[in-house]
Write a structure and sequence with these properties.
Keywords: Calcium, Metal-binding. One of its GO terms (molecular function) is calcium ion binding. This is C2 domain-containing protein. With about 110 residues, the chain is mostly beta strands. The chain has one domain. About 10% of the residues lie in helices and about 30% in strands. The protein contains one helix and five strands. The strands form two sheets. It has a three-stranded antiparallel sheet, with no helix packed on it. It has a two-stranded antiparallel sheet with strand order 4-5. A hairpin with a 2-residue loop joins strand 4 and strand 5.
Length: about 110
């Protein structure tokens, strides 16, 4: 399995960026693990949307473990997986369907096969 990361500080706001990211082995082995192509965009929310969200979160009557970790974001991050190329199957038969996992803070997402 390989991994790649993107520093959001380098992404220009209100502009779509297409990134081709080579997957690297987190254990340091030099091998071709394929690459993924993503489209990223950061779009700021309006001030009114941010205020409405803050009011909604503060007026919630019950606090779950999920909502206690909630944060008020002033921007939306759009991530589109365009394609994955040369992704290696990770089972011994070589027939597994690779997928991509995304992580942003504590939130995790998984692509379809």
């Amino acid at each position: 399995m390989g991994e790649a990361s993107v520093s959001l500080g380098n992404i220009e706001v209100n502009k779509e960026h297409e990134l081709s990211l080579p997957l690297i082995n987190k254990h340091g082995f030099q091998e071709d693990l394929g690459k993924i192509v993503l489209k990223l965009a950061i779009k700021p929310k309006s001030t009114n949307e941010t205020i409405e969200l803050a009011q909604l979160l503060s007026s919630a009557k019950r606090v779950s473990k999920h909502s206690s970790r909630s944060q008020i974001w002033d921007s939306l991050l759009s991530v589109i997986l365009v394609k994955g190329t040369n992704l290696r199957p990770m089972d011994h038969t070589g027939k597994s369907d690779p997928y991509v996992r995304f992580k942003l803070g504590n939130d995790k997402y998984k692509s379809k096969v």
